[in-house]
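Standup notes
- DV: blocked on the single-chain target, sequence here:
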Amino acid sequence: MSGDFGPDDPRAEEFADDMIDEGIDPASESPDAGEVVSGEIVDEDSEVALLARVERERDEYLDALRRLQAEFDNYRKRTARQQTDLLARATESLIERLLPVLDALDLAVAHAAPTEDGEPDGLAGALTQIGTMAHDTLAKEGLERIAETEVEFDPTIHDAVAHVPSEDDSPGHLIDDVLRPGYRLRDRVLRPAMVRVRG
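- DV (later): unblocked, structure below
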């Protein structure tokens, strides 16, 4: 094309003469469809195809981003749930190891010698306070003591180790005495209460 040469280039005239010899008018020359002019594509079909390809790639990247975001949200939720479960199991394990300590405190308070006026002596009073503080602290963590008497026997929270006949022949089995208290942490029984059943 004549636009490829500078205005003072002698080759421009030769190129124009060659075009005239071939029957082409250099002044009326216009790019055909699909021809590259100054590095730009003038084919409309190519532009539409390029636009469609870019839109398709955009949609693919957007879908991939959405999938990645959903996977990250699921990962975050799963990690939070695992951390909560791990903390709950650690708390449960620690409390289970503390149950014998609570039993020892209860026995020490029960066997402390009272003074002459029937009040517990200084040591028994101190043990009672320590036991109360320990039970209150663990209750805040969700620990519940199972030590009620005169309630219906429930095999899910009671472990019957002794039986006495009922005096009034009442139906059912009631807890006559709690030999060792049981404990429940939230909805799970850590240790059933060891009881004597009447009925």
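- Follow-up: Confidence is low (pLDDT under 50) at residues 29-37.
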